[in-house]
Design a protein that fits this description.
Length: 316
């Protein structure tokens, strides 16, 4: 049996290295690691702080100051040959009422916005969103169709409708959102202070000819949801009205902020065929669906009420 010889030792002895000199590089390397780790930790901490701060800045919401308290939005249709004197009376009616209470008015026109082929009635939704951008400090945005006059100059929207205690007395609870037999009903325990959207019903269902929205983040969400391209492109029979009925039934986030109030509070009709008829003292009278007959019909229906509002505003 053969055994391997052990490796031959070198005849040259290794150089002598002092013990202290071997420890010095190790200490230096150790300190360098500590410094590097501390630096990385500091950088990470700064990143977290700046990232958190940036996120807070991004999520910070503008709180409306309440100046003006209300913006009245009325979309003016100059494309279908309504009599000029009728449209002038509509504008003047809003302006006089707004000046009395320190409100603002906003009169966008049909054709101002690209609706991507959707019916012109959708203009009201994007006009509301535009008004929120134009008046970021407004507390409430009130959409009022051009087929209406404000009749009672003494009533202020923030007191007559939106004051929490007043709303709690007015709101119709546990009521089908789309009458008569919708299984989705208005909330029973909703508080007035939590309401961000107020509208009425007529004999056909929800009415979007006169409604109020509280300015803020929720309102942005609501209007963007309502204006979603899928709803605009869908062939709803009543366009944005039926889209509204759909979203309030299928979006609890919207239903949870909605209050339906009696029609005479915000949306009385000149004739009773379609809904609650105007009585003296009501805030608004609307000549609902007058445009389905003709543009002249709207002017004709409005005449008996024009002199009334002018007299009441003069005496207020």
């Amino acid at each position: 049996m053969h055994f391997a010889y052990p490796p031959r030792k070198s005849s040259t002895p290794p150089k002598f290295v002092p013990r202290s000199s071997t420890r010095l590089p190790l200490l230096r390397r150790s300190r360098a690691k500590v410094i590097a780790l501390a630096g990385l930790a500091l950088i990470f901490l700064v990143y977290l702080l700046t990232r958190t701060g940036g996120r807070r800045h991004t999520l910070a919401r503008h709180t409306p100051s309440g100046k003006p308290p209300v913006v009245i939005v009325t979309v003016i249709d100059e494309s279908h040959h309504y009599p000029t004197e009728y449209l002038d009376a509509v504008r003047e009616n809003r302006i006089q009422y707004a000046e009395k209470h320190g409100y603002e008015t906003f009169f966008p026109k049909i054709g101002n916005y690209d609706l991507n082929g959707a019916p012109f009635s959708w203009t009201k939704v994007v006009a509301m969103r535009h008004a929120m951008t134009k008046y970021p400090d407004a507390t409430y945005i009130w959409f009022l169709d051009q087929d209406a006059f404000i009749m009672n100059p003494s009533l202020k929207v923030e007191e007559h409708v939106m004051k929490p205690a007043r709303l709690e007395a007015l709101m119709i609870k546990d009521h089908p959102v789309v009458p008569p037999d919708s299984i989705i009903k208005t909330f029973t325990h909703l508080k007035g202070k939590d309401v961000d959207f107020v509208l009425t019903q007529d004999k056909d269902g929800l009415s979007v000819g006169s409604f109020l929205v509280r300015n803020g983040e929720w309102a942005e969400f609501f209007l963007e949801t309502w204006f979603d391209p899928i709803y605009r492109s869908y062939n709803f029979q009543k366009a944005e009205t039926h889209a509204m009925e759909h979203i309030v039934q299928w979006h609890p986030t919207i239903l949870s902020k909605l209050s339906i109030v009696p029609q005479n509070i915000l949306n009385s009709y000149a004739k009773s065929e379609k809904g609650a008829e105007y009585t003296p003292g009501d805030l608004v009278v609307r000549f609902a669906e007058c445009d389905k007959r003709s543009t002249l019909a709207c002017a004709k229906d409005s005449k008996p009420f024009e002199q009334q509002w002018r007299t009441s505003f003069k005496n207020a």
